[in-house]
Amino acid sequence: MSKKHQAAVQKQFTDTAQAFAKFAVRDSPETIADKVRFLKPQPGMVLLDVACGPGGLVVGMAPGLQYAYGMDLTPEMLRYSRQFQAEKQVGNAAFVRAEGEAIPCPDATFDLVSCQYAFHHIPKPELVLQEMLRVTKPDGRIFVDDTLGPESDEKFELHNRIEVIRDPSHTKSLRLTTFLKMFDHLGLEIVSQSFKRHRRSFNQWMLRAGHKPGDKRYLETLRLMEKSATGDKAAFSPQVQGDDIEFTHNEGMFLVTRRAAL
């Protein structure tokens, strides 16, 4: 990751750490419980969560594991992670500052390596996935969870343009076909997968990015979201709900492992 993009990511998540920790749907108790069921933690396993944000998955998974580690680039996010860990009185977890393209761990260290809702902030996600694979044990598994961009080129471009205006640290929401090609290229096969359509509040989505009604980025994102509604030009399926807009994020969860040798 370039120093310029590192700075953009750190600025975005330093400025919005409190709002993100409060409003991020990915870290709600219900969402974490759903992911724990999906991942099926075992007592002897050691987890690494890359780009852990406010630590929801690490703290939620730790009671069923031997140990859980979280790493993030932004110090303020790590502060919220450690605070959340203390609130939940979870002892078998730790958080460190590190970047996904250079995980500071030896090869084959972890039973499970995860990265959730972060690939769309990473300029070269395959490099991060490759690094995640490096630190995963030969029989270990990798969990990737992220929003999915539309397959249509026209919708894909506008979809990501709206995302970038809202959050300058956004690179692009990858297509499902891109994830599948990336897994195949690295010799990974899918153990299980899940796809969901989440309806979001536009106002809360913008608040989580640090924008209030009337802010420049709020108004420009709102203008494009409203403009995209006819014909669903950005694949957000926006609908006006009173003084808010409800829209859709498509999510893909993938649990993958190394492809068995023939």
Summarize the structure.
The protein is α/β, with parallel strands linked by helices. It is built from ten helices and eight strands. The protein has helices at residues 3-15, 17-23, 29-39, 56-61, 75-88, 125-134, 153-166, 176-185, 202-208, 216-228, and strands at residues 46-50, 67-72, 93-97, 110-116, 136-147, 188-201, 239-241, 244-258.
Architecture overview:
The protein has 262 residues and is an alpha/beta fold. It is built from ten helices and eight strands. β1 (46-50), α4 (56-61) and β2 form a beta-alpha-beta unit. The longest helix has 14 residues, at 75-88. The two termini are 35 Å apart. The relative contact order is 0.14. The model has no long low-confidence stretch (mean pLDDT 91).
Give me some keywords for this one.
262 residues; alpha/beta; 10 helices; 40% helix; globular
User: Nearest-angstrom radius of gyration?
Assistant: 18 Å
**Class based on secondary structure composition and strand pairing:** alpha/beta
Number of strands: 8
Amino- and carboxy-terminal Cα gap:
35 Å
DSSP helix fraction? 40-55%
Strand % is 25-35%
- Note poorly predicted spans: none
Count of alpha/pi helices: 10
Element order, helices and strands? HHHEHEHEEHEHHEHHEE
Q: Mean pLDDT score, rounded?
A: 91
What kind of sheet is the major sheet? 8 strands, mixed
Overall geometry comes to globular
Write the SSE topology.
Blueprint: H1 3-15, H2 17-23, H3 29-39, E1 46-50, H4 56-61, E2 67-72, H5 75-88, E3 93-97, E4 110-116, H6 125-134, E5 136-147, H7 153-166, H8 176-185, E6 188-201, H9 202-208, H10 216-228, E7 239-241, E8 244-258
Helix pairs in contact: 2-9, 7-10
